[in-house]
Design brief:
Radius of gyration: 17 Å
Low-confidence stretches: none
Largest sheet: 10 strands, mixed
Mean pLDDT: 93
Order of helices and strands: EHEHEHEHEHEHEHHHEEEHHH
Shape: globular
Length: 297
């Protein structure tokens, strides 16, 4: 399944995703792709942890984490499947832009890189990405405060030729477009489409309804999920699943569509077992492989 004619919305369903099959995860860990997760800080290592494990749960083969030096050893123990590298941090424990060269080196040979989970300072995030993104030549996911880079540099990912996925929430989408948040809430599909065309990247955003737009004009709507997904860390999990699917060889729109639907279905499973609200973002992680298997059968 691909997008419908320009201007036509495709509703995501299990049946439609089965007709848009993901690349088969055959072979060893090298063939399933290496990913790099960049973000976090002394007080916010959890976002990186969630995104990193989600990438593996989605089928990525190898995992690298680049985060604040004070928390990198702990993350390496928490996710023993990873290689965790400490980056310079400032007095507040936020990542320093001085780590840009290390990030660029780690990104070499990666199938997909995600920048943003757990970053806490918008100015620092923007400067770090300004030093890193122009030299990247791999598929990229920009999450959370990493979107600040595009506010100042609307063409900042154009050199990737469409190999980029943006995952802003409603507030971040409004900030990146420089419009009131009420405008985004009033017409989210238009806002998502505008940002996709402006940046030449796939964009995923929404609340109860999620919207996915491609720079070529494709538009998908996803109604899966429950209110319980509105919890801290949920977006980090979805960004990680997108990254893992990209590493496996999915194209950006396909990875975004599958990850958004799988994330919603994982929430639905937890809503039945735990309750409509009150489940945790980390509990989504163990549900992802089950959902992916169901969708692929």
């Amino acid at each position: 399944m691909t997008a419908g004619p320009e201007g036509e919305t495709v509703v995501l369903t299990s049946h439609r995703l089965r007709g848009w099959a993901l690349p088969t995860p055959d072979g060893d860990k090298e063939s399933r792709g290496r990913v790099l997760i960049v973000g976090g800080g002394r007080t916010t290592p959890g976002g990186v942890l969630l995104a990193a494990e989600a990438a593996l749960r989605a089928g990525a083969g190898k995992l690298q984490i680049a985060t604040a030096s004070s928390v990198a050893p702990g993350l390496a123990l928490q996710i023993p499947e990873s290689m965790a590298v400490g980056l310079p941090e400032d007095e507040e424990g936020e990542l320093s832009p001085d780590g840009a060269e290390t990030v660029a080196e780690l990104a070499q040979g990666c199938a997909a890189v995600v920048l943003g989970p757990g970053l806490g300072n918008v100015d620092v995030a923007g400067e770090l990405l300004r030093r890193v993104v122009p030299d990247l030549d791999c598929t990229l996911v920009l999450d959370a405060l990493a979107l600040a880079y595009l506010t100042a540099n609307p063409d900042g990912v154009a050199h990737l030729g469409g190999r980029c996925v943006l995952t802003p929430n409603t507030r971040e989408l409004a900030r990146t477009l420089d419009v009131p948040e009420s405008d985004v809430a009033a017409d989210t599909p238009r806002s998502v489409t505008d940002l996709a065309r402006r940046t030449r990247a796939v964009v995923v955003s929404g609340a109860a309804t999620s919207w996915i737009a491609s720079p070529e004009g494709g538009l998908w709507r996803d109604e899966s999920g429950t209110p319980g997904l509105g919890v801290s860390g949920s977006g980090d999990v979805k960004a990680g699943v997108i990254t893992g699917l990209l590493a496996r060889g999915a194209d950006p729109a396909q990875a975004a569509a599958w990850a958004t639907f799988a994330h919603g279905r994982a929430g639905e499973r937890l809503a039945v077992r735990v309750g409509p609200t009150g489940f945790l973002a980390r509990e989504l992680l163990s549900e992802i492989p089950h959902v992916m298997a169901e969708l692929s059968s």
